[in-house]
Amino acid sequence: MPKMKTKTGAKKRFKISPSGRIKRSFAYKRHILTKKDTKTKRQLRGMTAVHASDKAVVRAMMPYA
């Protein structure tokens, strides 16, 4: 059986922590930033965990992570 391929879009969007948690960055931080206030942009920095209901889907896209 051939090796499973990793979805390259998922590889770029998600990081797996050493403990196995899946981290993602926030949406709405790419463009049209002039109308967003400083507080909003500051809160969009960093990473957060993927919701429990989406974990299985992300794991399937990244079989070797």
Question: How would you portray this structure in words?
Answer:
The chain is of the alpha+beta class. It has a single domain, classed as Factor Xa Inhibitor. It is built from three helices and three strands. The chain has helices at residues 8-13, 38-43, 55-61, and strands spanning 14-16, 22-25, 47-49. A three-stranded antiparallel beta sheet has the order 1-2-3. Strand 1 and strand 2 (22-25) form a beta hairpin. The longest helix has 7 residues, at 55-61. The mean pLDDT is 96. Pfam families: Ribosomal_L35p (PF01632). Keywords: Ribonucleoprotein, Ribosomal protein. It comes from Candidatus Accumulibacter adjunctus. InterPro entries: Ribosomal_bL35 (IPR001706), Ribosomal_bL35-like (IPR021137), Ribosomal_bL35_CS (IPR018265), Ribosomal_bL35_sf (IPR037229).
Helices and strands in order:
Blueprint: H1 8-13, E1 14-16, E2 22-25, H2 38-43, E3 47-49, H3 55-61
Antiparallel strand pairs: 1-2, 2-3
Features:
65 residues; alpha+beta; Factor Xa Inhibitor; three-stranded antiparallel sheet; 3 helices; 3 strands; elongated; structural constituent of ribosome; Ribosomal_bL35_sf; ribosomal protein; ribonucleoprotein; Large ribosomal subunit protein bL35
Short structural description:
Helices cover 29% and strands 15% of the residues. The protein has helices spanning 8-13, 38-43, 55-61; strands at residues 14-16, 22-25, 47-49.
